[in-house]
Design goal:
- The complex is a heterotrimer of chains A (about 375), B (about 375) and C (about 230).
- Chain B has about 375 residues and is of the alpha+beta class.
- Chain B is built from twelve helices and twelve strands.
- Chain C has a single domain (about 40-55, about 80-225), classed as P-loop containing nucleotide triphosphate hydrolases (Rossmann fold).
- Chain C starts with 5 loop residues before the first strand and ends with a strand.
- Chain C has seven helices and ten strands.
- In chain C, strand 7 (about 170), helix 6 and strand 8 form a beta-alpha-beta unit.
- The chains are: A alpha+beta (about 375), B alpha+beta (about 375), C alpha/beta (about 230).
- Chains in contact: A-B, A-C.
- Chains A and B meet through helix 2, helix 10 and helix 11 of A and helix 1, strand 2, strand 3, helix 8 and strand 11 of B.
Amino acid sequence: MFMLKYILRNAFRHKLRALLTVTGVAIAILAFGLLRTLVGLWYLGVESSSSTRLVSRNAISLVFSLPISYKERIRQIPGVTRTGAMNWFGGIYISEKNFFPNFAIEPQAFLDLYPEFLLSPEEQKGFLLDRQGAVVGQKLAATYGWKLGDRVILKGTIFPGQWEFVIRGIYRGAQRSTDETQFFFNWDYLNETLRRTIPRRADQAGIYIVGVSNPEKAAEVAQAIDSSFKNSLAETMTETEKAFQLSFVAMTQAIMIAIKIVSYVVIVIIMVVAANTMAMTARERISEYATLKTLGFQWHHIAAAIFGESLFIATLGGVVGILGTFPAALFIEKELSQFFPTFQVTTTTTVLQLSAAILVGATASIFPTWRAATIRIAVGLRRIG
Amino acid sequence: MTTVLTASGMALVVMVFAATLMLTDGLKKTLVETGSPDNVVVIRKGAQTEVQSGVERLQANLVESLPGITIGSEGSRLLSKELVVLINLPKRGSNKPSNVVIRGVSSISLALRPQVRLVEGRMPQPGSSEIMTGSGIARRFQGTGIGEHLRFGMRDWTVVGIFEGGTTGFNSEIWGDVDQLMQAFRRPVYSSMLFRLADSNNFEKLKEQIESDPRLTLEAKREPRYYLDQSEAMSKFLNILGMTLTIIFSLGAIIGAMITMYASVANRVAEIGTLRALGFQRSSILAAFLSEALILGLIGGLAGLFCASFLQLLTISTMNWQSFSELSFSFSLTITTALESIAFSMVMGLAGGLIPALRAGRISIVDALRES
Amino acid sequence: MAANSDIVTIRNVTKSYRRGNQIVPVLEDISFSIQSGEFLALMGPSGSGKSTLLNLVAGIDKVDSGSIIIGGCEITTLSETELARWRAVNVGFVFQFYNLIPVLTAYENVELPLLLTRLSRRERREHVEAALEIVNLADRMDHRPSQLSGGQQQRVAIARAIVTDPAILVADEPTGDLDRVSAGEILSLMDNLVQNFQKTIIMVTHDPRAAEKAHIIRHLEKGLLADG
């Protein structure tokens, strides 16, 4: 088809300019993709929430704990399958730079309530039997080179002292989105140590993880739990795991919004650059367009040529940017693992990137197209030489 | 028209660059102002924030008896034992809950913190269920204005005063009587202590004394340092993010500048030829185009800086993920930032215009004239 | 008065341009006719309106008042779209600076007007090759304009102008950018087109040698015809 041939040849008429524009678009699309992935990360916890789990915490705030005696009462609420105590431990491995989430959790409850963490039967048994046992995600284990049987020491911040654990299990995530950077150890180890050292802090659960048999009834069960502890010394606030994760996200919402805005600004900037390029290019070819009109071509032919060229260059840049996003994400995952233990690019992101590139190409051509299509032939021809 | 577009592109980049610097400065300002260098914060060893920390009554008394603490006008030491916990409160309007710091204070607490001033109402009576709230909280959370009530710890608490902390973190806190709060939350231990050094140079000695005492599992920091450490991770993250973005953006802007400058050169080939034929040197042509690029950068920089200055009207509140408490800060524009931004913009223009300008200088007279 | 019929009739045509807030009159109430098979040279000083007149006849500009009838069709009443379609088939335009599309080969440049017709690829090929034969450039059909000399480019332009077999050719300073030898070749070619292919050519020129080749010369001065 003639138009295609014309567009393609025109796109590379000024090789340097085309190269610069394609590079510019590629960089912008790459940045856009990385930023969106960053925002997506924030919601990772939300994404991997289970609809059959509730989180029960002290109604005042997470800073306050719940008595261990609540466990039996929660278990007896209709609709509850199982429940277990879990405490955020916040331990440090060697230095503060090596951040990863670590929790104390009742082992049997852990195995029952988190089916997405895949462990072999030996590993499961090992965790149940060893007081000092710990189960870690495989990404975490790979980062520090931990193997089964290794001893790992965490320095306590909330619970002071040096705490020694033995790796009894390395779990794989059942889905791609499952977080494999977490560290779980036996709650009884924490509690028994506290009973010896700081008895008044013992027998306290940070939160309760509650399993429900029917996700549809989740809200009812949550209500039931909260009512049964209303007006007691430690009132509870029970919500779905998703809501719980969302509440964390909501607290850093300002930053997320800022990053989202920035990702759009990136696109706007490159739109400006691309529009600039197209405007220049079209202006240089005004007499050519006028000639075509003289020959009998009409405004829609001219429009198609400019629009097509702009779209082609932008899409080319977009594809290059998309291709570059994957190695960049890999690099971030490896080198900046303390901030971003996982940095996966989703299909949605790629689709958005492509759409952004197309949008850039389309908008960049609006003004030049309008100008070239409407210019009077006699005026356009005068621009010769 | 294309000049406008290029300059706008650069302006946007400068805005991002300036915004990043302003953000870091604003954050630092909030943190550093949150703290006097003569004050010392004592928390449990290993705890990174007051929220994680616990100081037993016995330990607190031991520290109180140490020499080197300023004696106040009434004869008692300028030392405050405080409780810091978080409570979950719903925001006005959106009902979304967020964590708010509640600090149990004593009458000395205000004296120790000169940046905090009571602006409305009065201080809570010791021994009562009265509280006062920071202006950052009073505005945004339900039940925190004067005369309003909060319910926690099975009790109702009345807000009797509002205090101003400027951009310090205290602005986002609620204060009440420490003993009452400890009772209500059933916390038998303090979270931290704050005292004023009699002689600022004595800090190291006092720190050594506290940290090496086997009965005390505590550590001591100067107050500004304490708050700085608390937000280190967050600052670093924002910084890295900002800088990375700026680098990416500037690449885009430089490319834009290059395209414009190349076209500019191409359009004026005849002009160049004429000038050279008249006797102008290559270097003057080079200089002319470089100056043009620099001016482009300057204009873009000024425009971007102008827009960025409006960011100062914005206040950002987010959660400090180290301490889990609300962190409120604004953008702060300093002369240094302004100058750095302009310089950055001009460098961008230069980088974009260098190669095209070189090209312009190298065109031979004959070629130039022939092309017209 | 001639045996041939009039192919172009210009009646009371007026045209002016805006320059800022001023209206500059260019052609004032001009009327004349051109006969089929004529080779007309329009001459006159700068600003006399000859190029404007050419543009009006070629249908690339619109009159303020008056009418122009070409080959029986009153082009002054046509809409933009109709005018574009009319031009594609009925007029060939030759420019001073050739105005070839640089990214297309000589063949593709000549083919351009045919793309607006319904001819098949094979039919188009026949026309293009025929046109290139006439201008004697068949061996260079795959060259781009940058690979051709000025004279050769102009010949390609002429091939493009005749490829749809229009009745009239309009030329604006066709030899203005050529050396003496090439100019001579172009003028001979144009003469050939008139003599052997029954084309009507209206040419605007400064060049007295070009004017010599024409059959009729008309002078334009300040938008009015002077006879000569």
